[in-house]
Amino acid sequence: MAATIANALQRVRGVFARRPDVAMHTDEPVIALWEQGLRVVCGLADGAHIATDMPRELGGRGDEVTPGWLMRAALASCLATRIAMEAAAREMVITRLEVVASSESDARGLLGMSDDAGRPLPPEPRNVRLQVSIAATDVATEVLKTMVQDSYRYSPVSAAIERAVPIELRVEVDPG
User: Fold this and answer.
1) Structural domain includes residue 53
2) The sheet that has 49-52: what strands, in order across it?
3) How far is CA 37 from CA 55, 118, 136, in A?
4) Is 17 inside any structural domain?
5) Looking at residue 124, what DSSP letter applies?
């Protein structure tokens, strides 16, 4: 499997080196469709989908993951994927890889509330942590740490959040 990944990455890097324009693309849009209550189903054109909801304490049914959980899942899975790609490219044999994404948030920000001084509370997490546990056959600890750090630097989801990619919001109101 690692050889297949390494070959694919090498092939794609070669194409992108010759034709950088090929690397630019529009990412597949995700469509979020509100169903009822606080349940939202996010899907792709091919039919893949995942539902979100909020905890009962916030008026949801609490039977699906929350949007914030999806953000943490995106962070963890993107970094794990990027580490696996980098390890394959370096011909390392990973025997264990786990990424835990955690955060702390003040739910008052989600509700548009203010602190005791009247300042609006931010809705985003106050901090985010990624904890990587990794093991590989015959690879020094420092080499693994450097590889994980390199992988983090090129993880698209981490970069988007850390660098606060600008978001353009457009609103269409259906008449009727």
Assistant:
1) yes
2) 31-36, 39-43, 49-52
3) 11, 30, 46
4) no
5) S
Task: Strands of the chain (E only): list them.
Answer: 31-36, 39-43, 49-52, 94-104, 127-136
pLDDT tens-digit readout, 103-160: 999 999 999 999 999 999 999 999 999 999 999 999 999 999 999 999 999 999 999 9
Whole-model pTM? Answer: 0.91
Does residue 57 sit in the same domain as residue 127? no
- Contacts with 110 (C-beta within 8 Å, 6 or more apart), sequence order: 58, 123
Give the number of other Cβ atoms within 10 Å of residue 25's Cβ.
7
Residue 145's domain comprises 67-165
40 falls within a domain: yes
* Domain identity same for 81 and 161: yes
| pLDDT tens per residue across span 51-103 | 999 999 999 999 999 999 999 999 999 999 999 999 999 999 999 999 999 99
